[in-house]
Known about the structure:
The protein has 112 residues and is an alpha+beta fold.
Amino acid sequence: MSCIFCKIVEGEIPAQKIFEDDRVLAFHDLAAQAPTHFLVVPKEHIESLAETTAEHEPLLGHLAATAARIAAEQNLTAGYRTVINTGGQGGQTVNHLHLHVLGGRRMTWPPG
């Protein structure tokens, strides 16, 4: 059975898409935690950042570069936060690697 992000990638579940290419999909988070909150997910199912290997390095770079490009397109010129939650204690709730981009307000520290 596919996870929810795989179903979004496959088009089985609708999403408010921002960007898509052959490796990643970006879409607005339904449970937004900031005025701008979107996710960038690899189309390949990878459980978490902890499951990545050296072969994933080009994909991880593409994930980050895509997040930066979309943040600029979303006018997050004053700054933004990128987050990859990993594992249960890290706050990961969907077991599919994904990068959060949050912006449009001042971020506080520590984050959680």
